[in-house]
Structures are given as structure tokens and as C-alpha cells.
Amino acid sequence: MSFPNVRLSNRPLHFIYLCDCSGSMAAQGKMQALNQAIRQSLPGMVEVAHQNPEARVLVRAVRFADHAAWHLAEATPVQQLQWRDLEAGGTTAMGEALELLADALRSPPMEERALPPVVVLISDGQPTDDFEAGLAKLMHQPWAQKAVRLAIALGHDANLEVLQQFIGSTAGGEDNSPRRPLQASNATTLAQYIQWASTAVVSAASMPASRITPTSQTQNSSDRAANGSNILLPDLPPTLMDPTDEDVGPLVW
Amino acid sequence: MNWLLPEATDLSFEGIEQPLRILSGLGGGTQGQVYAVQVGAEQLALKWYLPACIQRDPQLRHRLRQSIVLGAPNADFLWPLALLEPSASTKPLIRHRQAGFGYLMQLRPPAYVGAYLHAAGALEISLQNVLRACFFLADGFHQLHLKGLCYKDISLGNLFLDPNSGRILICDNDNVDIDGQGQGAVLGTPGFIAPEVLLGQVRPGTTSDLFSLAVLIFRLLTRHDPFRGQMELEIRCLDEPARRRLYGEDPVFIFNPSDSRNRPDPIEHAAALITWPIYPQPLKLLFEQSFVIGLRDRHQRALTGQWKLALARSLDRRQLCSHCGQENFPELQSSTNTCWSCRTNLPKPLRLQLPFGLVVAANGNEFYPHHFDRLASEDLRQPLGRLVAHPQNDGILGVQNLSQQCWQVRRRNGQLISLDPGMTCNLTALQQIDSCSGTITVLR
Fold it and tell me: What is the pLDDT of residues A16-33, one digit of tens each?
């Protein structure tokens, strides 16, 4: 005597990490920080998948160094995902990674019907192969055009220009926007951005959140929707400050 | 989670005498973060807004003050109790340059879970309790609208329900405003927004609430979306522009009797096809009213009072299949009903004739003051009686006296029994019950 056990209508939501594993990622624990950030983000991602009856969240990952290769080749339901550590070493074949992604976003293997895929590119340096060719091949795929493309720049040596090209055009001068490369200068910020992408963005791509009236203050977010992204991206996480080391005034005078 | 407020810390707020102890963070969303707090001996919930949310919604503080003054429509709303502005000593402890503000509300009891879990099929719940939850939802909006207020953003995301009772809690009441007034920022949630609001023609108000309410009731009753049929299957990438077409520019109700363009697909939309036939015709007509004529003419949408009546009457006719035990809601006039689940014939059940209503004698069905008083509005909170199975032999059905007064029960052989409050008498050979509220006759 209970509600009928009916098959529910849903669509796949592909979430794909493109991870820079070049030699420079070995420095300052960046590789470990990225592995940790992704691993720590999984419970939250499972929770979001649980809350979004419309979506089947499937995760994959590409690693790129001297060459690009699938690190997690099979589209894995997030509930079953166990993150294997990435290892650093080699150059930065980012273009090849985009080609690999292009193959995966072709239909088939892509399903006929899906939610917008979410792709997160994480890099700390310069592409060492033909990035332009890779990007061109990627953007030839309709699912790549529909995808929510996000980029995280690790440290200060990342090439923000190529990351911006991957994301697509911006909505003008807004600095702190998800339509620009997210700059993570430390492990905490990286973890925040990974968590934001794997929860808030996944949620927005599968079950849209409340809409607000565009006013002068919110013009930026509606611009974001109009320019480039075909979902309304959620706010970035607020930048928290530690009250003990900021804004306390001069220490000595 | 990066919490804006320091946990395990006492914070003082403007206009509140006692400091609040922040116990722990409970959760966070796109708008703000919720904390468990201790105020004196009481534990409450505190919602603290993210700076970006405050920035884009300049009327937020004003609406919260207004809601606090007006008070909750009924106890099913987790209503704002007090506005919290940080004191000078609290501001430096908040981990953001803009300290912001928040409000206090009751904590949500753990028995209440997100309604999305039901929509996701992750909840064991009876059809009776789903219908009850829909009733309480319609009743909550009835009380809210009677106060001249509108909610603006009802969706699966701000409804919680107790699967064991069908009781609900409506959360996130911070968009509530006086209908037709205010320039609140929210439009609603895609999939629930009325088409005229999604297209930017009309601002949200009570008539768009009625649309969203109908969508939410539909989703609770069917675990499916009322506008996702064939036309959804034609969409490859379900993104913002696609949702705008599906819900705004050309929405077609999947069961629109005169437009079959958007019928459910037997495989992709099986949930809708299995669940829709379960429900009585008067309920289905309210969906047609809201999603066919009411789609374009917002003044034609089913009203909260109509939903309450249709849902309460559906519950009255609940019958259990003798073969599979499944809950059915058959036409009482029809003589050829079959169980929707196992197709067994449903025999005409015993019924209780009340002064203003007919209740089928099935384990768990209840009758209420509105069955005895034409002027009483439907309300499921205080049953006067309930049909219950014998604890040792569930083949024996009885009527339990849930009122405060003794009932006089007359059996078919003329025997009279006094039934004290809380006691149950066997329905077999029972002819009539005289209660203070009125007479109940058993129809066979």
C-alpha cells in the first residue's frame, strides 16, 4: 500500500574534468591539492544528484601531460565514483585533451537527449601542443557548444587567455564571474571552486533554481545568460575572510 | 561548507536582548546559509543571507519585517520570527566585509524531508499521505491568499513533508509579499513559473501562485511534470531556451483533452501514464482547468478552495483492493470498478453516510468536523473518527471515536452500545452512530 514504484523520467548530465597533469603540477603540492579537492567534493555532488530527480549525473575525467588520455573513461554514476589519484609529469597537451573531449561529445556516443554537459578545465600552465586545433575540433560538436564550460587557473602561471578561449566570449568587464577563468591561488580556493562547479553548477544545469527579475544590479547575471552560456550560472562562492588577518588596521604605528 | 558565521560562538544582534549561540551550520544554498542556534532554552533556526543575495534584492529586509508583523498564515509555514541585524560587536566576527542580516524561524523537525525525494521516487509514502500533503499545501496557500499575501516561488525545493502523516512544512518564506505590491526580485522557479511570468508579461502574484500550486500538486500526485510529453522528447539539449519554449512560449498540458501534441511517451514518461488514471475525475478536471483554459487566462485557474474540496473528497472515497491491498479512489456511482494496480474487481464498499459527505469504510479513512457542518471549511487536522483494523485481526474493521464525547452506537439487532472517546466498535452489524456532531449511518 504505497505510491506506485514508477520509472521516472530523467536525462543524463555529463560532468567531465580535464586535468592538467604536467610536471609543474608536482610543485607545491598542486597535484595533491587537486586530487583532494575533487575527492572532497564528491559527497556534495552525490547529494545534489540525489536532490535532482531530473538528472542522472555521470562523471568522467581526462588527464593531459605529454599526451592526453582518459583517466576515468567510463561515464560513471557519481554515487559509484571512487577518485583515483592523478600523477604529475610531462608537458601540457591541452589541445589533445580537447580533441579527446570532442570525440566523447559526438553523438553517438552522446545520448540523443541530455542535459547540458558541464566541463571543467583545470590548468596551471601553457599548452605545449596545438591548442587552437583542439579547440576548433571541440567547438565543431553541437554538444560542446551547448556545454557549460568552466576553467580554473591554478597558481599564477596559468595561461588565462587560452582558458578564456575555452570558456568562450565574456560578458564584458566583470572580473569575478564564472564566465572568466577562476583563479585559485591556494588549495582552499581550489577546493571551493571545484565544490561550486560540482554542486551549484550541476544543480543549475539539471534543475533550474529560482529566477530573479533583472534589475540594474543583476544585469550582469542576465548578460551571462544571454552571452554564451545556455544555463543561468549560479553565483560564485562568497570570498570569506579571516577576521584575524584582514581589515584589522595597521599592525604597528 | 564555508560558514559565514562562526560556529560555537555567542553573537549579539540589534534589538534582541539575549545573545544567540550559533550551534552548527545546517546547510547552504544559493541565497544563504542556515544554522541551528540556541536562544535561552529554545533551539531555533537562523537563516543568514549571502551578500550577493542581499545586493540584488533591495526589498528583502522590508518584506521580512512585513511578514514578521503580519504573522504566519498557519503552522505549516516555517515563518520568519525575528529579523536579525548584527550588533557592532558581532560584525567583526562575520567572515565577510558586508556583514549582512538574517532571520530566525523554527527548526524543521527531522521527520520532515524534502518533497523532491518523493518526486525522485526515493520515498516510501502512501497515496493517502500524498493526497493529504497536497491538501495541506492547498490549505496553506488558501490561508496565505486569504491574508492578502502571495508566495511567488513555490516549487519542490521549498516544500517538506512527513511521509508518515502527510503533514507539510513550507520553507523559504522570504519572497512572500502583499499581492500586487512590492518590487520583489523573485520570478519563480522554471518548471513551476506561470507562463505569463516566465515571458515577463506579468509580475508574480496570487494568480501565478495558483499555477505553481497546480504544478506542484501534479508533480506530487504523478511524480511527473505536467508539460513533459512528446514535445520534450523533441528537445535534444534541455537548456534555458528549451525550457522557455516548453513552459513559456508553447506549453501544452500532457493530458489536454483537445490538444494531443504533447502526450506522454509510454517509455520515457511512464510515471504519468501509470499514476494519472488513479485519481478521481473531479481532481483531473481541476488540472485541466489550470493547465488548459488557465494556461492563457490566469483568472480561470483552479482556486485553493476548489483544490481543498476535491482533495478532501478524494480521500473520503479511498478504498483498499481486497486482492493486492493497493489504495483506490473509484467512482462511487459506478458499479464496475477495477483496481488500477492488479485489475481485480472492486466490490461496492461499506460507506459511512454523514450529514455532509460520504466516507468509504477503509482502514485509515477518517471523518472530520466538515462532514457534519456545511459551513466548516475542509480541515484534516482534527478527525472526529477513524476507520481502524483490529490490532490482532486486520480482517475486522471498526470505527474509532476520536471526539471528546461519548457516542451512542446502534447495532442492526437494536442493541445499543456507549462508545467512550478513544474506543473502537466493530463495524459488522453496526447500523448507526449518534454523536454530538450528528448522525452517522452505515450504508451497505
Answer: 999 999 999 999 999 999
Kindly write down the DSSP assignment for every residue of B168-209, as one continuous string: EEE--GGG-EETT----SEEE-TTTS-HHHHTTSS---HHHH
- Do residue B145 and residue B97 come from a single domain? no
Long-range contacts of A71-80 (CB under 8 A, 24+ apart): A71/A17, A71/A19, A72/A17, A75/A12, A75/A14, A77/A49, A78/A15, A78/A42, A78/A45, A78/A46, A78/A49, A79/A46, A79/A49
**Residue B88 and residue B135 in one domain:** no
For residue A230, give the 3-state DSSP assignment: coil
Residues of chain B positioned with their CB less than 8 A from the CB of A12: none
**Whole-prediction pTM:** 0.93
**A3 and B92 in contact by Cβ < 8 A?**
no
- A126 grid coordinates: 601553457
Domain hosting B426: range is: 350-443
The CATH fold assigned to A11-209 is Rossmann fold (3.40.50)
Which of B238, B244, B263, B340 best tests the A interface by mutation, with the highest count of A CBs <10 A? B238
- Among A50, A230, A238, the residue with its CB nearest the CB of B239 is A230
Domain ranges of chain A: 11-209
Which residues of chain A make contact with B116, given a CB cutoff of 8 A? 51-53
CA distance B113 to chain A (A): 11
> Percent of chain B at pLDDT above 70?
100
- Nearest to residue B129, comparing CAs of B143, B118, B140, B139? B118
What residues of B are in contact with residue A178 (Cβ under 8 Å)? Answer: none
Q: Tell me, what's the pLDDT at A222?
A: 41
Residue B4 covered by a domain:
no
Q: Do A234 and B30 touch (CB under 8 A)?
A: yes
Asked if A209's CB is within 8 angstroms of B51's CB, the reply is: no
Q: Which residues of A touch B30 (CB under 8 A)?
A: 200, 209-210, 234-235
